[in-house]
Recover the amino acids of this structure.
């Protein structure tokens, strides 16, 4: 049954059906009964493997093709009328040329398959933040993941009425041919096209494609921000909750920070951390002049390896039911799952992420480094009571951060908003397994948005500067680095729950409750200002973590100049950022 009379939707679906030629079309309603039927169908075909329903109720395992395990940045395009609009950091192709190429690939691609029509909302429907999408896909895995990650419901059709204001997403698995894999955005047309992939960020089109790339473009037009940020609230012993948003590149600690459990010395005093979101934030200026944020998603697509009862017990607890695991180890003895870092007992009778018999002694990893879990956010033990608040939460601090073995200290604060935008714009981080390509290479990743900005990044920097003017009560802006290494390559800072100690300083600074030292790069804590009570770490190590080596910073300035030079092509780098860089260079001496 077709559940809508919306002409824009009907026409568009009809067109895509003509193009892709599925055997049938199924309209997804979000009802559990229908989803369960699809689950059973996927178990029958082997697309999903049903896991031990006593130990992991509602859980399933999925294995992707071996050439299809991460986002593909070199095959991701922003197709705007001009190259200037996409800017120097995005792949671009002329929209008509790209459509011709895509149409040839989509033509007949769903023959013998079913097309599913998924209506979904990013953010609580009816919220001032909410935006709607329709994804067409020939993958049950996508349907079931979207039903966790977004708010899928036939009510979207009522909300839309006859409005054409929704984001169109077309996904076809086709042959999973890596040479013809494309993740393409047409921001001017609210359109996303994905073909030849079946992996996470490439195919769950509500996530990176819509909630970051298309949304960042809409945000620039409409005066708000779509960011690669977690949102968390720290409740102090008085019961007051202070919120911050933090942008770290992929696989650099957002999920972990968002769900952190405070160390005992904080717990005993009554501190709690509440998770609002772990990957994406939409931010708007509220009527009260503060910056308000929602998490537009409804679930977590989190990195599995390294997730344990020690590192992130909240994430682990979230994944004990109704979760889809992708590319992890299957324990054949009890039909459960395992990944590196879960515990020290890898299963002896098991299949690796490719489905082959796996020997834990072999030295080969059993789970893919970018293996993931898809779990409903509401199952998280520390999910914020404000998670569904349509108005969002007020943000007092914005935190940038990345993986840097040297240069960046544990924490520093920008001098003001514009300097904070500069700090975000010069972010750099070692690459991770979240994207196809080399791992561990330092690259500049401004605001953790390099792979996700849906328009010219120079214009994006200007938009951040403009937003500052509009926020009467600006959040303070910080930078953190949990990943400094000693000469032997070991992380110096214990990280994870202990990051609470840095959050405490950040929130005190945000509320003007503690002094700081002025340095060439920004405001910094005195070593004794970070609480190390109960931690096996001395003041000298803290001094080390907070040290700023001018030699490294001067090297960094040269690297930033090279990065900024990319923007000469269309001359979109704001003069303000050039001035900020010159001022930093001068302060470094
Ligand atoms: P995406 O979902 O890809 O956007 O990633 P994310 O930023 O949510 O990353 P996540 O929290 O899943 O962290 C990924 C990796 O970082 C895992 O291997 C973690 O073990 C590691 N990690 C997270 N927090 C810390 C920390 O404080 N210290 C150290 N040393 N490693 C950390
Ligand atoms: C990321 O890579 O930043 C992710 C995972 O959050 S994916 O959805 O695959 O992009
Ligand atoms: Mn992410």
């Amino acid at each position: 049954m077709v559940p809508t009379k919306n002409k824009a939707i009907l026409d568009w679906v009809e067109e895509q059906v003509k193009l892709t030629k599925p055997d049938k079309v199924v309209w997804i309603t979000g009802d559990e009964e229908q989803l369960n039927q699809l689950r059973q169908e996927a178990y029958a075909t082997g697309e999903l493997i049903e896991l031990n329903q006593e130990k992991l109720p509602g859980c399933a395992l999925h294995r992707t093709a071996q050439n299809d395990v991460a986002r593909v940045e070199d095959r991701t395009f922003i197709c705007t009328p001009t190259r200037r609009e996409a800017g120097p950091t995005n792949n671009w192709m002329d929209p008509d040329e790209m459509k011709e190429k895509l149409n040839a690939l989509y033509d007949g691609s769903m023959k013998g398959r079913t097309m599913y029509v998924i209506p979904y909302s990013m953010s609580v429907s009816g919220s001032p933040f909410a935006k709607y999408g329709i994804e067409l896909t020939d993958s049950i895995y996508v349907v079931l993941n979207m039903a966790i990650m977004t708010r899928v419901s036939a009510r979207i059709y009522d909300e839309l009425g006859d409005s054409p204001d929704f984001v169109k997403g077309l996904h076809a698995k086709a042959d999973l041919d890596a040479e013809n894999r494309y993740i393409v955005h047409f921001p001017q047309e609210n359109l996303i096209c994905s073909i030849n992939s079946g992996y996470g960020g490439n195919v769950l089109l509500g996530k990176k494609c819509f909630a970051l790339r298309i949304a960042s473009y809409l945000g620039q037009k409409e005066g708000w921000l779509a960011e690669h940020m977690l949102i968390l609230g720290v409740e102090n012993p008085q019961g007051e909750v202070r919120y911050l948003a933090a942008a770290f590149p992929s696989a650099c600690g957002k999920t972990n920070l968002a769900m952190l459990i405070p160390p005992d010395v904080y717990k005993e005093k009554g501190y709690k951390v509440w998770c609002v979101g772990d990957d994406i934030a939409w931010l708007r200026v509220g009527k009260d002049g503060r910056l308000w944020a929602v998490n537009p998603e409804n679930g977590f697509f989190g990195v599995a390896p390294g997730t344990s009862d020690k590192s992130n017990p909240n994430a682990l607890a979230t994944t004990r039911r109704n979760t889809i695991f992708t590319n992890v180890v299957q324990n054949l003895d009890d039909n459960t799952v395992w990944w590196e870092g879960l515990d020290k007992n890898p299963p002896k009778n098991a299949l690796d992420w490719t489905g082959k018999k796996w020997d834990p002694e072999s030295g080969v990893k059993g789970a893919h480094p970018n293996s993931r879990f898809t779990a409903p956010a509401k199952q998280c033990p520390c999910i914020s009571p404000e998670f569904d608040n349509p108005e969002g939460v007020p943000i007092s601090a914005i935190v940038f951060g990345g993986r840097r073995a040297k240069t960046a200290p544990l924490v520093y604060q920008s001098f003001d908003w514009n300097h904070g935008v500069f700090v975000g714009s010069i972010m750099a981080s070692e690459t991770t397994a979240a994207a196809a390509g080399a791992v561990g290479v330092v690259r500049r990743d401004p605001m953790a948005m390099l792979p996700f900005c849906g328009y010219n990044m120079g214009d994006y920097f200007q938009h951040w500067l403009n937003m500052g003017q509009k926020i009467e009560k600006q959040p303070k802006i910080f930078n953190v680095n949990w990943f400094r290494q000693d000469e032997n390559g070991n992380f110096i800072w214990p990280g994870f729950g202990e990051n609470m100690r840095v959050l405490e300083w950040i929130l005190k600074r945000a509320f003007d409750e503690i002094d700081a030292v002025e340095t060439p790069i920004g405001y910094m804590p005195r070593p004794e200002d970070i609480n190390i009570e109960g931690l096996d770490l001395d003041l000298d190590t803290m001094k080390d973590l907070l040290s700023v080596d001018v030699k490294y910073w001067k090297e960094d300035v040269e690297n930033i100049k090279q990065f900024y030079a990319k923007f000469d092509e269309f001359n979109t780098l704001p003069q303000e950022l050039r001035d900020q860089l010159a001022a930093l260079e001068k302060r470094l001496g």
In short: The longest helix spans residues 206-222. The pocket of sulfopyruvate (ligand 2) is lined by residues 71, 200-201, 207-208, 250, 279, 301, 434 (CB under 6 Å). Residues 227-295+387-587 form a domain with the Phosphoenolpyruvate Carboxykinase; domain 3 fold (CATH 3.90.228.20). The chain has three domains: 7-30+72-222, 227-295+387-587, 300-375.
